[in-house]
Design a protein that fits this description.
11 helices, 49% helix, Rossmann fold, seven-stranded mixed sheet, 7 strands, alpha/beta, putative oxidoreductase fold, 280 residues
Length: 280
């Protein structure tokens, strides 16, 4: 397999970032973009775009920077044009885990990768890196899964993912199911849900109890900094005995006893179906 990469959704908001990374890294990049806004974004960056047939001819890797709901349909459309051994690289686990990918081409490789995004605690010194919350400037880790294909293809998939989301700290190898547990499970259904609840609580401090929102926000963000550092091992875990008693009391008021089911394979599969098909 060569270093030729066809990129679907190359000019999209998410696709453009990884497209530019591959283009700047010197890959034989074939950008595919049907939207006028995306095409303008590519043109401004000096990245040529081509039609699908030209992009796929001889491409060793096909990256699908597309909404999860259409990935299966696109793969079904382009399969006949792909040579045996071509890698299809998907940037999210939802479509693969929801079994939305066609299964009639066992000679194709399916690879899934996703960025972890820059961590809260890091040693970045440049302003642009310290304020990079999505990745691409600051170092981040990534997770990768070889879903289908020969073992030797894992290295190529990981190489492309590292180039797309560089600079990279660590590459974690997982299964597709494990990646789905991480997202949408851990990151969206659990973490995003709790973060959204925290913002609602800050709003309630103001609307219900008359506390200035800035005061509540500053108080919460500062305490989150301390608590995340302690609980995840960035500083000694030294909460008071009273705080630990309140932790258990608070959990009894906020969390259901079975809350960890939110990241179980069964629920994550339902979430993947919801993402891809719009229903469970």
């Amino acid at each position: 397999m060569g270093r030729s990469v066809a990129m679907f959704g190359a000019g999209g908001k998410m696709g453009f970032r990884v497209t530019k990374k591959l283009f700047d890294a010197g890959y034989d990049l074939r950008a595919i973009e049907i939207g006028a806004e995306g095409q303008a974004r590519l043109a401004e960056a000096g990245i040529p775009f081509v039609d699908t047939e030209a992009a796929l001819k001889g491409a060793g890797v096909v990256v699908l920077a597309l909404p999860d709901s259409i990935i299966g349909k696109v793969v079904a459309q382009i399969e006949p044009q792909l040579a045996a051994g071509t890698m299809l690289l998907i940037l999210d686990a939802a479509a693969p885990y929801a079994e939305a990918l066609p299964g009639n081409r066992p000679d194709l490789t399916y690879f899934v990768g996703h960025p972890c995004h820059p961590p809260l605690f890091n040693d970045e010194t440049e302003w642009s890196a310290r304020h990079d919350y999505h990745g691409g400037v600051a170092r981040q880790s990534i997770v990768c899964a070889l879903m289908q294909g020969p073992e030797e293809h894992y290295a190529l998939g990981a190489e492309i993912c590292q180039a797309m989301w560089s600079p990279i700290d660590k590459v974690h190898r997982v299964t597709v199911e494990q990646l789905a547990i991480l997202e949408p499970g851990l990151s969206e259904m659990l973490a995003m849900c709790m973060v959204d609840a925290l913002t609602e609580a800050v709003d309630a401090c103001e609307s219900r109890y008359g506390i200035a929102r800035e005061a509540a926000k500053d108080f919460l963000i500062g305490h989150l900094n301390v608590e995340i550092a302690m609980w995840f091992g960035y500083s000694p875990k030294v909460p008071s005995d009273a705080a630990l008693r309140l932790l258990q009391f608070g959990k009894s008021k906020i969390l259901r006893d079975d809350w960890l089911e939110a990241i179980s394979p069964k629920v994550v599969r339902q979430a993947s179906d919801l993402i891809v098909h719009g229903k469970i």
